[in-house]
Amino acid sequence: MGSLRALLCLLPLYPGLAAAAPSCPQNVEISGGNFTLSHGWAPGSVLVYSCPLGRYPVPTSRLCLSSGRWQTPRSSPVAKAVCKPVRCPAPVAFENGMYTPRLGSHPVGGNLSFQCEDGFVLRGSPVRQCRPNGMWDGETAMCDNGAGHCPSPGIPVGSVRTGSRFGLGDKVNYRCSSNLVLTGSAERECQDSGVWSGTEPICRQPYSYDFPEDVAPALGTSLSHLLGSTNPTQKKKESVGRKIQIQRSGHLNLYLLLDASQSVKEEDFRIFKESAILMVDRIFSFEINVSVAIITFASKPKIIMSVLDDNSRDGTEVIYRLENINYRDHENGTGTNIYKALHSVYIMMNNQMQRLGMSTSAWKEIRHAIILLTDGKSNIGGSPKPAVDNIKEVLNINQRRSDYL
Q1: Which DSSP state fits 15?
Q2: 187-189 and 181-183: which strand pairing?
């Protein structure tokens, strides 16, 4: 009987009889593309597919479950992964003119040509080409006769616009056709300055993305207009709806929030970093006092630099911190928690208010700008709105102080 007990005790230690750790199957190749694994074939590992330029993966990723099965993030069954050709959306409408060719969508390298009816002037690009990232090059074409207080806001490719009056106070609204995703302003208003509020909307395919060479100049240009009032010799040309008015003796807190969650690929995160570096380099070229905060986030935020740090006023140090951010810092946090990221900004603001004193001009005269670099797919933490409301409260944002945030 004693020998039997000894045998029973030894059985669990024998390698051949130990329970095998679960793992997911390795038959996950993608036709025409490649894939990477965050943690091998073990449960919790994220598989991310990639394709050559001009094609996109379906599905984009899979998650290895504890049961040893692969599943897409949305828990929907998928067939064998493939790389599909990228296509650009087609116009839904073009006012006071015509465009060719008329297709349901356009292949990479395809052109769209625009021309106006008599009495109308073409603004924007007369010819646009579909690029490998699923975006059209050039600018939105529109035909305008100059009759309104504001120029025609146009109808960006893939969008539907309601509202055809362009007088002072008139509004136009936009939505996207089919499965396209809208970025920019869904509603714009004609202002006293003769400029439309907000930013021009873009309707894009869910798989489309921006090239770094497009993002960086756009951010730099936005900053030039945003802070143009700091240079009294510069000609003022209105181009955006919101401005942060800062005098030379004033101070700006710039909060850079970079999404490093599972849905953001490492290449996309690199674009975020390059864009942020361009922005910092540009903003420190203005004759104003600036403090920069850097926060990366996934399921939880990580503060790389606070506006309370002395080095946050040193452009060289800020760029050094940005260059050395590690995308892998958040590899164990797969979710996208925009609420937590914004809440960390609120905590930072509150700490600075306590340090400077709520009633002092040193605190009340600081302007604040929050730049959120994300793919927009917040999936945990709830709505970011409560965090935004808290930020507005601590900054006492009201109609008279709307340009402080």
Answers
A1: G
A2: unpaired
Is the pLDDT score of 73 beyond 80?
no
Roughly how many angstroms between the first and final C-alpha of the chain, as a whole number? 80
18-to-21, 42, 44, 212 alpha-carbon distances in Å: 9, 17, 22, 51
Q: What angle do CA 260, 87, 51 make, to 5 degrees?
A: 50
pLDDT at position 56 is 93
For 30-85, the fitting CATH number among 2.60.40.1260, 1.10.3720.10, 2.10.70.10, 3.10.25.10 is 2.10.70.10
* Residues in the chain, total: 405
Q: What is the pLDDT of residues 198-221, one digit of tens each?
A: 889 999 998 888 776 666 555 555
Fold annotation for 87-204: Complement Module; domain 1 (2.10.70)
372 in Cβ contact with 328 (< 8 Å): no
Please provide the average confidence, as pLDDT, over all residues in the chain: 83
One-character DSSP codes across 214-252: HHHHHHHHHHHHHTGGG-TTSPP----S------TT-EE
Give residue 32's region: left, alpha or beta (phi > 0; psi -120 to 50).
Answer: left
Give the long-range contacts of residues 13-22, CB within 8 A, separation 24 or more. Answer: 22/66, 22/67, 22/68
| pLDDT reading at 36 higher than 90 | no
Q: Look-up: residue for tokens 């897409």? A: 72
CATH architecture for residues 220-227+249-395:
3-Layer(aba) Sandwich (3.40)
